[in-house]
Amino acid sequence: IRFPFKPYIPEVNGRVLTLKNVVLGYLTNFMLTLYSNKRDYYKNNFTVFVSYESSQLKCVPVIRLIHCGPLVGSPVSFYRYNNIEIQSSIKYLADGRYVFGSTYSSECAQSATSTWKIYRIKRQKSSFHIETEDNDLLYHYTAMTSLQYTPFNFEFGMFKVLLEVKNVQIGKSSINYDSCYFKVLSLPLVAVIDGGRERKVYKKHGLWLSASRSYDPNMPANNQSHVYITWTCVNLKDPTGTYELCQPKQLPYDKKYFIPPHLLSYGTSYKFTMEVKTDIYENCIECSEKISPRSAFVQIDVASETEVVPFDMEIECIENCEEKVLP
Question: Where is the PKD/REJ-like domain (predicted)?
Answer without folding.
Answer: 107-325
